[in-house]
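Entry for the shared binder. Reason: the reviewer on the internal report wants the predicted structure included alongside the sequence.
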Amino acid sequence: MDLGKLFFCGFDDFNEEAREVIQKYRPAGVLIYPGVLSKEYLFLDFMNFLSRNGRFIVSSDHEGGQLEVLKYVPSFPGNLAAGKVDPVFTGRYCEMAGRIMNTLGFNMVFAPVLDLLSEKGSAVVDLRSFGSDPEVVASHGMEACMGYFKGGVIPCIKHFPGHGKTADDSHYLLPTVNASFEELWREDLLPFRRIFQSRVKTAVMTAHVKYPAVDDLPATLSKKLITEVLREKLNFKGLVLSDAMEMKAISENFSVEEAVRFFIEAGGNMILLDNFRDLPVYYESLKKLIEDGSIEREKVERSIKIVDEYLSALENKFNSGLIAEVAERAIECTRMRKELLGREVVLLVPSNKNLSPADTTGDDYDLIPEVAKRFFKVRDVIRYDIEAGPDDVDGELIFDFVVNASKNEQVLQAHLSLPSDRTIYFIIRNPFDAKFFPGRSVVITHSTKPISVYKSFQHLLGRCSS
């Protein structure tokens, strides 16, 4: 059995460890966090990696308003404000956001939030809710789901059966909602019921909240709520995800084995992990529970089948990973002394300066040190004036980033005066500069962009596939 398909993992970084985890355990779900999204070069490389390594459900937490993580999607007033206007605006925003997400390579979004706003509720809900009226939340939730789906991403509605009636935050402790099932059915569950009746394709995320009138276990681990209410009473046949299992509502009250066993036995399908580094522990726990009979194989096989159905339904006409592919394929290298690459590096970085009114590349140079530090131990960063060239510098290994040196003899000589046996020249703008460095180590990126610099470092270290 392909047990990796039962996991949805959060990634706050994309590095060799992340690559190894994905390739070894094959989680079907990938949740991309701001740690990656805030570094465009990292995000582009991640998307390229995913496109080369199979099919994945790729999601973000971008809801608009209180929780926004994708800079490419215009900021939105949020659900609470949207709940005060015609639901058609919610649908239009979500379709627009969905189209942008799909173009980038996402095919799911952990939204919309269907929790009701309560006067005594927690800040974890607040602006994420469409309001206190179940009918309003249902109408906007419906429009949001249809909008996202039209835009090309599958919505994951949350947090079943409702997180709004508690003042506590499940990130920190296990909340309790003291409401009768009749009240939950009439209010909190109404938005979920309406969306299921519409048959728009969605996934469902469970709440780490306890509802004593229904079960002593939190919803994420409750067979009564997931199987008897969600599956049977509401007739939902689709994908059920947990909220992140590392949240204290679960992790401080249940062992890994208990959380995995209860969730799968309750009828859940995909275990969401906030941190991809936790996947080996949860994976091995699931494997052991199946082997010793604590979890029914039939339930695992049924969950894998549901995940496969969603994977087959996903489509992305575009993927931003192609940008990393272009950067990688454009790189050219001359002779290179690989034995130098383990040394401390001195970076010679051009000053932030655009060279023409039709030029916006100056800011690109500011990110070179950040990118370099992902691969090398950087001893020093020296910024030099593009119009004067670098001063003499000494170091075990020098990375000299060259901009239009051949157009100014003084600048060219400044670059050539660097120790040839310890300098690698990165020609990041004018490829004709390269011919003035014969017999030296030269990397031609044909671009100043951080993704091109990032890929040039990968190329030096033998980590590129092109």
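Summary line for the report: Residues 3-321 form a domain with the TIM Barrel fold (CATH 3.20.20.300).
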